[in-house]
Amino acid sequence: MLRQIHSPVLLANVADAPASAFVVLFTCDAIARALLISLLPLQVYAQLGDAQLVSMVYFSVALLGLGATLTVPVILHRISRRWILTAGAVAQMSSAALFALGGGRWLVAGLALQALAVAMLDVVINLYLLDHVPRRELTVFEPRRLLFAGSAFAAGPWLGVFLHRHVVEWFPYLVAGLAMLALLTFFWAMRLTDNPGLQPATAPPPNPMRYMRRFASQPRLVLSWLLALGRNGWWVMNFMCVPIYVTSAGYGSEVGGAMVSLGLAPMLLVRVWGRIGQKIGARTLLTFAYSMTAAFSFLAAAAAAAGATLVGMALLCMAAFSATIIDGAGNVPFLRAVHHYERSEMTSVFMTFRHVGALCVPGVLMLVLMVMPLPSVFAVGGAISLTAAALSRFLPRGM
Questions:
Q1: Number of structural domains in the chain
Q2: Residue 198 has pLDDT above 70, yes or no
Q3: How buried is residue 105: exposed, middle or buried, by Cβ count under 10 Å (0-12/13-18/19+)?
Q4: I need a labelling partner for 64 at 20 to 30 A (CA). Which of 4, 117, 256, 303 fits?
């Protein structure tokens, strides 16, 4: 069972600093991403006019992100983590500037730069988290982090589209850049120390294939990665395809953004899901949540294929509601399984779930859309969730 452990949160050189310091970092990052998460697919769709081509663009960008994530530990062997985080934040701000320029070339360049930024930020922030928040406190920290990040994602998808259409086209990109600037400023104000074992070194950098093999040799780490991939894969499908589906059905782009925001709004209940997870166990919680997400996704695909657009939209919201329950466990299966002496390498491999999901899902959708209509993508999301539900049964009973 997930147990709530009331142990102090100690930061290396910030006296009595609460875990809320890390919540601020994750929230700023979430704001920067959430504002653009519905707007960017719509902008790419407006430029290309084809959902299959949109999938192709995201597939190509994800290849870059995956390679960057696996390269971060090699860079960490030479450069301090604080400078990698700084570079990631600057890259994220630069990508927002490219998006603001408009045009197909700038959009693709911005997406590529954003993929590099996400790779650096994800790995490094999670490494700092593992160093400075006690392992048994993570079951309490994760729902709290997801609550604040979820608030950003609940409002951001609609707000980004609204600001783009009704204020100034470049304004959401400015706000996203300012959120990342706030993250960078707050990070340097925290003055976190680096783990001495992760300082720059003069020895040859580690071989990425070696720590990938080490990760693959640990079943609990592999299981946590597959579950995270299932969760992320469904959301990739949702963020990319729901706004396009709504727009292609004749509704405005704001409705598409509002649909994503509405689906993410239940993430505000993540602490409730977390408490339920502590009582019934992560295995039961994840099995139930993934199963419900799969069921509603399949029903949404059937309704959309039958031309019942409003019914399909309602079912997609129910599927998203079920998917937010998954975040009651968050990344706890990984955080509880990783050994402290190999956090850098294993965290880097684990965080590839984002980029593998961003790579595989658009790739699969691209192939599916070659032979089937748009509503079929929701069935793909259902299949992803159903597979994750089956895998959840392999989690330890005591988790």
A1: 1
A2: no
A3: exposed
A4: 256
